[in-house]
UniProtKB/TrEMBL annotation:
Protein name: SusD family
Transmembrane regions listed in the UniProt entry: none
High-level lineage: Bacteria, Pseudomonadati, Bacteroidota, Bacteroidia, Bacteroidales
One GO term describing the cellular component: cell outer membrane
Location(s) in or outside the cell: Cell outer membrane
Main location: membrane
Family that this chain belongs to: Belongs to the SusD family.
Residues of the SusD-like N-terminal domain: 62-237
Length: 512
């Protein structure tokens, strides 16, 4: 076996949690054990090892809540008009006042988390065909690879919307030796790829996933199914680089054919219930469970159960499964006065009480401590965290219809979510012009999907960032002063400076 000459710069990079994280599993395990020769490395020794890694992929969104959920809400809600940072500090306040820099440690955490997830997906995609186990059928190989490609597409979709041009990594870098350094070195330090090419790779991965992934399972929404691929394709085709409104409509209609629909009661998505109503009152707050999982509206979700609950609920307010736990410090993602005013402008909107809750607390950063607003959509350790739900996609169909000039058709879709919320249909004037229906549409998405990680991306996709965000500081008396105005350069965020320092082939995004 050839002696490996690992460059000191590479070694230092790996010790510093290098941004690429191609091969993050570096110790012996059932996943990494295999046979290595000069020509072939067996990463997965058998089907059992492969299935273990497949489960790792399925659990990524359950176990990586910091970067794909908590920080995504900070970006999409506190960096928009929906929320304040909540717990002001050097890492959160810049999202609230538009002063994010490449030194922000949340940005570094998110980049490294996403890149590590890409590496996990690539490990499956690149190595599955080398598994020397006849028990692994060809149909299983194709399915598991398709699932990993849907996952990779999902991760890159978030990355390209956050940072724009990012390195496109679809393989696993080999060892650096004296013979391979010229070939392998660029794989460890790749340049950025333009956003259009990233979107095209996402599209390619999803179209393959759509062929070979399993069908939607109504009893298990934690799988990378064909329906997840369809939902992502609809979202991808709504974005400017690949915008195709006919395809948005096509894939949303296919989701309906898969059995997805709005649940009748909006509270089914977020509410909790007593797991055992017969317990004495002193124990009831410890016996709370999610009201529902795997609803017909949920397309992809992370699920948490007694014994393995989610910690992230501590970050937003009172965890209803333990009323006093971790409620001694300021919480993230505090609903803004501007969002509350938007809800109050629609009297009787049932979504308001599922989105915002008021408690007494020990701090008064944004509201009086005796009546303080908290984010309420993740209210216990056992709530499912829904990554994608049908209401988002259904409303995207309305956006596509607006783009095609069918304002009446868009209004009919908007009225579906309004009626479920207990509101009347839009007035005829709301669909009288493109400007009117777009205003109604953006408001409806804001109220329907508030504090779910959509608002900032909606503003970016529809070129509304400057109009909305440069005005909100004057009308929202609870928001700290704006540091920099929003411009077209604000649509993507800075690449972490640590990452640029480690990879000489990366350049900072304009404006940072």
């Amino acid at each position: 076996m050839k002696t490996k000459y690992i460059l000191s710069i590479l070694f230092a990079c790996l010790l510093a949690s290098c941004s690429l994280d191609y091969d993050p599993v570096g110790i012996y395990s059932d996943v990494t054990e295999g046979v290595e020769t000069d020509s072939v490395r067996i990463v997965f020794k058998d089907k059992a090892a492969l299935l273990s890694h497949r489960q790792t992929l399925l659990n990524l969104f359950k176990n990586g809540q910091e970067h794909w959920y908590l920080d995504m809400l900070l970006l999409a809600e506190s960096h928009s008009d929906n929320a304040y940072a909540g717990a002001p500090n050097a890492e959160t306040t810049p999202f609230e006042v538009n002063s994010i820099e490449g030194s922000n440690t949340n940005m570094r955490r998110d980049w490294n988390g996403h890149m590590t997830n890409i590496a996990h997906a690539n490990r499956m995609i690149v190595n599955i065909d080398k598994v020397p186990d006849p028990a692994l059928t060809e149909a299983e190989r194709i399915q598991y690879k398709a699932e990993a490609k849907i996952l990779r597409a999902m991760i890159y979709f978030d990355m390209v919307r956050i940072w724009g041009n990012v390195p496109l990594i679809t393989t696993i870098a080999g060892d650096i030796t004296s013979e391979t350094i010229a070939e392998v070195y660029p794989a460890y330090f790749p340049p950025q790829t333009d956003a259009l090419t990233i979107y095209q790779q996402i599209e390619e991965d999803l179209l393959e996933g759509l062929q070979y992934a399993p069908d939607n399972n109504p009893a298990d929404k934690t799988q990378f199914s064909k329906s997840v691929a369809r939902a992502l394709l609809a979202k991808v085709y709504a974005e400017k680089p690949l915008r195709d409104y006919d395809k948005v409509i096509q894939y949303v209609d296919q989701l309906a054919a898969d059995g997805f629909a709005l649940v009748d009661d909006y509270s089914d998505l977020f509410e909790v219930v007593l797991a055992d109503p017969n317990l004495p009152p002193s124990q009831q707050n410890m016996a709370i469970d999610a009201k529902a999982r795997n609803t017909r509206e949920s397309i992809f979700e992370a699920q948490f159960f007694t014994g393995s609950g989610s910690w992230v609920t501590w970050m937003f307010g009172r965890p209803l499964n333990n009323w006093t736990e971790a409620f001694t410090w300021a919480k993230w993602i505090t609903p803004s006065r501007d969002l509350i005013r938007a809800f109050n402008s629609e009297q009787g909107d049932k979504r308001y009480n599922q989105t915002v809750v008021f408690y007494q607390c020990d701090w008064s950063i944004y509201y009086p401590m005796n009546n303080y607003a908290f984010m309420y959509k993740c209210r216990s350790a056992y709530n499912s965290i829904i990554k994608m739900r049908y209401a988002d996609l259904l409303l995207l169909k309305a956006e596509a219809l607006i783009g095609k000039g069918d304002y009446s058709g868009a209004a009919q879709i908007i009225n579906q979510t309004r009626r479920r919320a207990g509101l009347n249909n839009l007035p005829a004037s709301a669909s009288a012009s493109k400007e009117a229906i777009l205003t109604a549409y953006l408001k409806e998405r804001r109220l329907e999907l508030a504090l779910e990680g959509q608002r900032w991306f909606d503003l970016v996709r529809l070129d509304k960032v400057e109009e909305v965000m440069n005005a909100v500081f004057d009308k929202d008396e609870g928001r700290p002063a704006q540091v920099y105005p929003y411009t077209s350069l604000s649509y993507i965020l800075p690449i972490p400076q640590d990452v640029i320092d480690q990879n000489p082939n990366l350049v900072q995004n304009p404006g940072y």
